[in-house]
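Late entry, written up from scratch paper. The run itself happened at the end of the previous shift, but nothing got recorded in the book at the time, so transcribing now.
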Amino acid sequence: MNKSTLKPAIILVADRTLSANYKILFEGMFGTMQTTQVPELAMRTLVAPPMPYDKSTGRAWAAPLGLRRVETALLNECALGPDDVVCTTPEGLGSLLGPWVKLVMVSSSDPLGIGMSNTTTANFWDGELYTKFWTNRMMMQLRTAKEKSGNNFKIIAGGAGAWQWVHLKEDAIAQGIDIIFEGYFEKSGPKLVTNLLNNSPLPQPPWHITGDYCPVTQIKPNYNPSMLGTVELTRGCGKGCNFCIMANQKMEHFPVDTILTDIQTNLTAGINTVVSTSEDFFRYGGQGSKPDFNKLCHLLTEIRKFDELSFIQIDHGNVSSIYQFSESELKEIRRLLSWREKIDYLWVNMGIESANGHLVQANSPGKIAPFDPDNWEQIVMETVDRMIAAGFFPIISLILGLPGETPEDVKMTLEMVKQLEKKRAVIFPIFYEPIEPDKILTNHRFSISRMTLDHLELYTRCYEINFKRVPPMFWDNQRAAGVSWFKRALTRSLGKTEVHSWRKAFKRIKKQKSG
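Output as recorded:
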């Protein structure tokens, strides 16, 4: 491997599932849920193709948004020049390692393979989740490099999956991690790095640090482009869900100027799509549980001034937020989300969790607010109808095994799914995974062993809907992003293989449960 011409003090790198050249957000979601049942060659070339990087410098063309925030904070707050900090990919990592490296900062969304969405796949499929498999491989490479003479760098692990290392410290120690940094980096991260560069002594590893609160108004725009053209609209949520690390962080809204500057940085690098990240897109600019139609429309109107953009993708929308918009307001928002490329499947992920509003409220105290949980099913159905009428494509998520769930709740949710089946939407059931330290890897987790036949019927019914409707959505989004017809056809072919695997697993489990 050729060595980089740079000798950085700090290297930033994310696990391989986050260091891929995805063209649409759903490709990234699809990539992180795969197991080693999918051949690695197919993963590396088709599902998660490698992110390009400069062979002479090791710099990644684009990087996950979280790493870009860290990179920007380091360059702004520490006495470091651009050549002292390099954001790379796992493929480029080896060319940068040497005695000059002081810190390697690693990010992963699911390093130990216990994230709620991904473990659902792992329950049905053979093999190990690629998020865990590839993270282990990268950490082994780093451990090996540390053992060589002259390589005394420290490893700081963070990202959305940092909570897993915090709660399973033996795994963190085995992976050679010195510091686990949980939370946002901008406030206390640069101080930590400055101390480490000045050779301050460390406590016994893994040392756990939680990032201090930093107002979004103090966060500077990124210097370099983010993967998928991702930009932050908000931080936090505050809905109190017991299965989400954002549950108790109050939602804050990024200034419009910061968002626009980040989009321009991505466009300058040749990334002409936008992925807007927020725990609730429809609450941008609002106060508490109340959305603000005018502020959201103002942001979208400003974004529309970028003629180079081809299309925008949004991720999460809370049902109770969307329900507060009229159908005409939703149609106007949909119009403002239309750019040069026509997109027929502008999807929004809406967490419904269960048909029982009281069960939802017990596990997500603020999710239904300001409405009555007795009306939850009605609110859900009306919101789905409004979204479809406005031109959106709802991706609905359910959670199986929520604490307090009863057999009647499962039957209620199954009946609701039968009604949703008639609508233009898809439904993804997810297995409940706790994030509390005393409940991880215990019987508080939901798994196939706890599944009833009603659970299985609910799950199977949802996926039969998805088998029909996800492929055209995937095709439509890839087309809008400029993915070639050939790759779209290959992706669809792989999808058919996975449908076969799912159905085979359903039959096997039904036989086990019935026997």
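The chain is about 40% helix and 15% strand.
(Scratch paper discarded after transcription.)
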